[in-house]
Specification:
about 45% helix; 2 domains; 11 helices; binds acetoacetyl-coenzyme A; alpha/beta; eight-stranded mixed β-sheet; two-stranded antiparallel sheet; globular; N-(1-d-carboxylethyl)-l-norvaline Dehydrogenase, domain 2
Amino acid sequence: MQIKKVGVLGCGLMGSGIAQVAAQSGYPTTVVEVSREVLEAGLKRIDQFLATGVAKGKVKPEEKQATQARLAGSTRQEDLRDCDIVIEAVVEDLEMKREIFARVDGILRSDAILASNTSSLSITEMATATRRPGRFVGLHFFNPVPLMKLVEVIRTIQTEEGIEETVSAFARSLGKTPIRTSDRTGFIVNRLLVPYILDAIRALEEGVGSITDIDQGLKLGCGYPMGPLTLLDLVGIDTTYYIANIMFDEFRERRFAPPPLMKRMVLAGFYGRKTGKGFYDYSVEPPRPNDFLTAR
Ligand code: CAA
């Protein structure tokens, strides 16, 4: 099966990135959001990303124009009708995802493939909400989607022969490198990444080092592109908290348990860059570390 038309459910941080990359790779792409307002915000994010790409000389102005011409935004799931693959990237809420998948399953052709960009929920549990569990996979992208080269391809014990190959070829056509993983909470990357970033918060709580020193330590000492606390602010402290809870629920291991400071930051609305405040304060340039976090 060849994928010719792409649908994306959700135009948030991940959904907009996936829709952008698909359209930029030549696929007519339809992205669906619940409201016009959220949709417009997502399309604006894509416009800004492409505009930055043009300013940096990475994207040609005509490529930006062609990408946007291939991209359609909608608030109606029915507009996904003729898509060959639909990738879901809505909030990490299992019941909501199951409901959406059940509805979209009824709209799509029977040979279309459904995929979830979940970071931590069970692909099998979502697939069983549809009548096509054999044509259901996980396709996990990384943030920022247009720049990160990896896609985790998750197959379940129900995935039909040939589907994994089709979606892996699709991922390659987006300029990404696919890796194969089984349907285990967190897959490969978050299984290793989440305990590491949670440990960085624990080190901060225990006074091992300041925010700046922990980040500099891992950046300069290990060659990571950004320190763990900067990364938490990028991915979203709320999102990571949610993922950690799901992983803790599955494995019951302390290394996946969110530290108390993380919970308080989520309660206070300190989600990172998206709310302007996390481990760093983004209202100033360059962002300033919120060192008061550990004193309270
Ligand atoms: N369009 C096109 N290209 C762009 C661009 C744009 N809008 N913005 C930047 N670029 C290019 C730059 O020109 C640059 O290209 P070169 O390497 O050829 O020079 C490259 O992208 C890097 O950009 P910058 O120099 O501006 O920024 P940087 O070097 O600081 O890198 C980063 C930014 C790629 C985000 C890097 O810091 C990084 O890799 N960070 C780690 C991110 C990470 O770990 N993500 C995974 C999070 S976990 C997740 O997402 C999964 C989950 O389930 C939670």
